[in-house]
Design a protein that fits this description.
The structure holds two protein chains of two kinds.
Chain A: E1 3-11, E2 14-19, E3 23-29, E4 42-48, E5 51-57, H1 58-61, E6 73-80, E7 83-89, E8 91-99, E9 103-104, H2 112-117, E10 118-123, E11 128-132, H3 134-138
Parallel strand pairs in A: 2-11, 5-7
Antiparallel strand pairs in A: 1-2, 1-8, 3-6, 4-5, 6-7, 9-10, 10-11
Chain B: H1 2-31, H2 36-55, H3 59-76, H4 84-107, H5 116-127, H6 131-134, H7 136-144, H8 148-164, H9 166-171, H10 176-185, H11 187-204, H12 210-213, H13 219-243, H14 249-272, E1 274-276, H15 278-281, H16 284-295, E2 299-304, E3 309-311, H17 312-333, H18 337-342, E4 349-358, E5 361-368, H19 375-384, H20 390-394, H21 398-402, H22 426-435, E6 439-445, E7 449-457, E8 462-470, E9 473-478, E10 482-488, E11 497-499, E12 502-507, E13 510-516, H23 517-520, E14 532-539, E15 542-548, E16 550-558, H24 564-567, E17 572-577, E18 583-587, H25 589-595, H26 597-609, E19 620-628, E20 631-636, E21 642-647, E22 651-654, E23 657-662, E24 665-671, H27 672-675, E25 686-694, E26 697-702, E27 705-713, E28 717-718, E29 725-731, E30 734-739, H28 741-748
Parallel strand pairs in B: 2-4, 9-18, 13-15, 20-30, 24-26
Antiparallel strand pairs in B: 1-3, 4-5, 5-7, 6-7, 8-9, 8-16, 10-14, 11-12, 12-13, 14-15, 17-18, 19-20, 19-27, 21-25, 22-23, 23-24, 25-26, 28-29, 29-30
Helix pairs in contact in B: 1-2, 1-4, 2-3, 3-4, 3-5, 4-5, 4-11, 7-11, 8-11, 13-14, 16-17, 17-22
The chains are: A mainly beta, B alpha+beta.
InterPro entries (chain A): CheW, CheW-like_dom_sf, CheW-lke_dom
Pfam families (chain A): CheW
Domain CheW-like (chain A): 3-143
């Protein structure tokens, strides 16, 4: 049975996953250079072995208030269109292998910002994992429906 | 003649490469005799050599390759089959070509290399494909004969080869067998030149041959190298910063070496991408000739600094703007012969191109001795086109007015010619140059001529930048746009003023519009306007001050492009990694300048309202602040002719005095430290010195360091007098002693004023 590996992580107590093939590495980092005037979803820039990487605040992308960047955050570095982008998340989970037939399209009730970023859901034993579209998650040019003001 | 030399050089390099390929191809061809493709490739190579050698009048080479070409064309067209005999003949030909090239390289001529025997060998293959089989040994001997001495080694090789391949001989097939024998013997005719060649070289001189001294390298590889060196520069910066905080002499020394090596490496790698500017200049004489001819003008084109090198990619980017400026100078700058003669100028105009290095940039000047730019006409045109308002014009200096020609859609040509003035004006030149991080400005004297000056970075990847701090973050400002730095000292009563709500600063009596970086970036705005720095920037022909919290330093930074999402913000030109490894954003000066537009207008209105912008009360004085030990000493800027750095070992002693050789003169030197009774603790390799010159006499005042140049109201002054001082004042929050310059000068050169009839007290500081 075809299956796929997902790297999982948590944002606001919700479990998300992205295709493990897209993930370059995961690291904790805390010194971000803010980019004034950039969309709030751009958490900042940081230096990863000589490369300037943009960190995207997934909380903002999901329509939540931005995270406090003075507290170290976990970076899930994904490769999108040959470019490395970091997704800022709360906690890193395991890499799990899931059968494709456990996949379900996102529920119709899924609202707003979530809906744009989620490609599907997986029912795990005790919780739900939302499969994230890494490219859309990393795209900061799309205005996020404002649910909270920053 | 030189050009011909270049052509021959290129020909040799290319041919050597081709011959190596040819060797491999020929051998491969033997394995796969039917390969039409390979035959064509070989044919083309030989054909190229033949063509060029004919052009360069190397007749032996030409006849030889011609013979080879004839055989190859038969083989290619299928008129005869490739066989070992023809392969031998061709390989022999290739070797002889190589010998000829070697001779050309060393002596410039073909020498007396024997080509006849090889040509004969090749001809035989053509005339009668079966003939060579009949007398292989004889032919081999014949070919080998002229080069007998060197042949021995090859002979041995040939023999071992025979021994190593006993099978084909034993097989005794009627057709191929003798041929195989020929093949075995083959190295004897062909090897001698090959063997002789290296022997000659090592024997004669160790000079590297052309083929060895240059290689072709993939540009991608160079880019990778460049990128890696960029990383190294950053890492170096981090280490240098880190080491400055520890006091381990060994580590400091090692770091200095690392610093040096990195700089040299960076320079060398940059050089691999460098090409002389002549590459783009070489087309200009023709452009000037044709253009001046069609306009009935006489123009002499002079070029200085042809060999000045620029990064290849930048060279391409500069080509069009440069051509445009040259065409413009011929079209609009230089007058017709009659006009020139009428003005008392020589009928022939001169257009001078000059390229040189200056402060990490390459400057390219395009200078004509033509009519110059008519400020009045520029002003009128700018008015007509609505580029400026009459009010604005009234307050502009002529230099600023001339700079209006860079505004979009500006052309002052009286008539639109087919040459320039098609709306593709100076604004395009400016945009193109600014795109590569450069700048363009113009200087013109009516009736005398015009000079356009392009300032181009040496390379795109690494730039000089000023790092500043604002809020919690650091930002980098490309050095090319920075004119000067001003510290707004809260203590001395200087302040940022506001007119119509827009911040301005009085810079030497003129109002400078300000842009607050914190405000522009939407950061929390600091309350105090005191103790901030103003970076005076220039962009789009507009000067403005950028207010930042702190100026950190000037360093070389590696520009990292920003992704689209950040570029859209519009204020950033890129990002870089600074000394401590953090990312800093590079500010885009032109876009900041556009944001300064509103401030500028307010400042202009204010300038008009307050015609007298001189500060009230107190006299402003510009002072050079020098550090001597822990003390700070101020020297009036009027008393500073030049600032110099003298190597310590160049300071010599004459009697009890110290002197230094300076511009063909002996310059008396006084160390301010000893004059003021401090310990001289400077121990660098060079010492900074203030040189003062008056009526041909100069003295040098050696200080420990040059700290700053400030403007100050000399009010808060005490008469706390000390030997050699006229008093002290608080400048930049520090007590600063005012030097009695006259005394210092006399200490260095007691006769300094003796021959001057008037000694005015006004020279003494205040």
């Amino acid at each position: 049975m075809p299956s796929r590996q997902y790297a999982t992580f948590e944002v606001a107590d919700q479990l998300f996953g992205v295709d493990v093939a897209q993930v370059q590495e995961v690291l904790r980092f805390h010194e971000y250079t803010r980019v004034p005037l950039a969309p709030t979803s751009v958490g900042g820039l940081f230096n990863l072995r000589g490369q300037v990487i943009a960190a995207v605040d997934l909380r903002v992308q999901l329509g939540l208030p931005p995270r406090d960047l003075n507290v170290p955050a976990m970076n899930v570095i994904v490769s999108v269109d040959d470019e490395w982008v970091s997704l800022l998340v709360d906690r890193i989970g395991e890499v799990i292998e899931l059968d494709d037939d456990a996949f379900e399209p996102p529920p119709d009730t899924l609202a707003g910002a979530y809906r744009n970023l989620i490609v599907g859901t997986f029912k795990l034993q005790d919780r739900l994992m939302l499969a994230l579209d890494a490219r859309r998650a990393a795209d900061t040019t799309v205005p996020v429906p404002a649910q909270h003001s920053a | 003649m030189d050009e011909l030399g270049d052509i021959i050089q290129e020909f040799l390099v290319e041919s050597h490469e081709n011959l190596d390929q040819l060797d491999r191809d020929l051998v491969a061809l033997e394995q796969d005799p039917g390969s039409r493709e390979m035959l064509s490739s070989i044919f083309r190579t030989i054909h190229t050599i033949k063509g060029t050698s004919g052009f360069l009048a190397f007749h032996r080479l030409e006849t030889l390759t011609h013979a080879g070409e004839s055989l190859l064309s038969r083989l290619r067209d299928g008129a005869q089959q490739m066989n070992p005999a023809s392969a031998d003949a061709l390989l022999a030909m290739v070797d002889t070509v190589r010998t000829l090239l070697g001779s050309i390289e060393e002596t410039g001529g073909e020498g007396d290399v024997d080509v006849e025997s090889v040509i004969a060998q090749v001809q035989e293959c053509i005339e009668d494909p079966s003939a060579p089989k009949a007398k292989p040994a004889a032919k081999a001997k014949k070919a080998a004969a002229p080069k007998a001495p060197a042949a021995e080694k090859a002979q041995v090789e040939a023999e071992t080869e025979v021994e190593a391949e006993p099978e084909p001989v034993a097989e005794a097939e009627p057709e191929p067998e003798p041929v195989k024998a020929v093949k075995a013997a083959e190295p004897s005719p062909t090897a001698p030149p090959a063997a002789a060649h290296p022997a000659e070289e090592t024997g004669q001189n160790a000079r590297r041959s052309i083929a060895e001294s240059s290689i072709r390298v993939d540009v991608d590889l160079l880019d990778t190298l460049m990128r890696l060196v960029g990383e190294l520069v950053l890492t170096r910066n981090q280490i240098v910063r880190g080491v400055s905080e520890v006091s381990d002499p060994a580590l400091v020394r090692t770091t200095q070496r690392l610093n040096l090596i990195t700089s040299e490496l960076q320079e060398s790698v940059m050089k691999t991408r460098m090409q002389p500017i002549d590459h783009i200049w070489s087309k200009l004489p023709r452009v000037v000739r044709d253009l001046s001819g069609s306009l009935g003008k006489q123009v002499k084109l002079a070029m200085e600094g042809k060999e000045t090198e620029l990064d290849r990619s930048l060279l391409e980017a500069v080509k069009d703007p440069l051509t445009h400026l040259v065409r413009n100078a011929v079209d609009h700058g230089i007058e017709t012969v009659e006009e020139r003669v009428a003005k008392g100028k020589p009928g022939q105009g001169t257009l001078t191109l000059r390229a040189y290095h200056e402060g990490g940039h390459v400057i390219v000047e395009i200078k004509d001795d033509g009519a110059g730019i008519d400020v009045e006409r520029v002003a009128q045109t700018a008015l007509d086109r609505g580029v400026v308002t009459r009010d604005q014009l009234a307050r502009m200096e002529s230099r600023e007015i001339i700079a209006l020609v860079f505004q979009p859609g500006f052309s002052t040509a009286k008539k639109v010619t087919n040459v320039s003035g098609r709306g593709v004006g100076m604004d395009v030149v400016k945009t193109n140059i600014e795109q590569i991080g450069g700048a363009v400005d113009v200087d013109s004297t009516l009736g005398k001529g015009t000079t356009w000056r392009l300032t181009i970075p040496l390379t795109l990847a690494i730039i000089q930048a000023l790092t500043v701090e604002c809020g919690a973050e650091r930002y980098a400002i490309p050095q090319v746009g920075v004119d000067e730095l001003v510290f707004v000292d809260g203590q001395s009563g200087q302040a940022i003023e506001h007119v119509s709500g827009a911040p301005v600063y009085r810079l030497r009596g003129k109002l400078l519009p300000l842009v607050r970086l914190d405000e522009t970036l939407g950061l929390p705005v600091r309350n105090s306007d005191r103790d901030v720095y103003i970076a005076v920037l220039q962009a789009d022909g507009r000067r403005f001050g950028l207010v930042v919290d702190r100026v950190l330093n000037t360093e070389e930074i590696v520009v990292k492009p920003l992704t689209g999402r950040m570029k859209d913000v519009g204020v950033y030109a890129g990002a870089t990694i600074v000394g401590d490894g953090k990312v800093a954003l590079i500010l885009d000066i032109p876009s900041l300048a556009r944001r300064s537009h509103l401030a500028a207008e307010a400042a202009e209105r204010a300038q008009l309202d307050h015609a007298d912008t001189r500060p009230r009360g107190g006299s402003i004085e510009r002072l050079l602040i020098a550090g001597i030990g822990e003390r700070r000493v101020a020297i009036p800027l009027d008393m500073v002719t030049r600032l110099e750095e003298f190597p310590v070992e160049r300071i010599e002693r004459v009697g009890s005095r110290e002197v230094v050789q300076y511009r063909d003169h002996i310059l008396p030197v006084i160390r301010l430290a000893s004059l003021l009774g401090c310990y001289d603790v400077s121990e660098g390799e060079t010492v900074p010195a203030v040189v003062y010159t008056e009526r041909g006499r100069s003295v040098a005042l050696v200080v420990e360091q040059i700290v700053d140049i400030v403007e100050d109201h000399i009010e808060s002054r005490s008469d706390l007098d000390d030997d050699g001082l006229t008093g002290s004042a608080v400048i930049q929050q520090r007590v600063t002693e005012l030097l009695d310059v006259r005394r210092a000068i006399l200490a260095a050169d007691p006769r300094f004023y003796a021959e001057m009839s008037e000694i005015t007290n006004s020279m003494v500081g205040a």
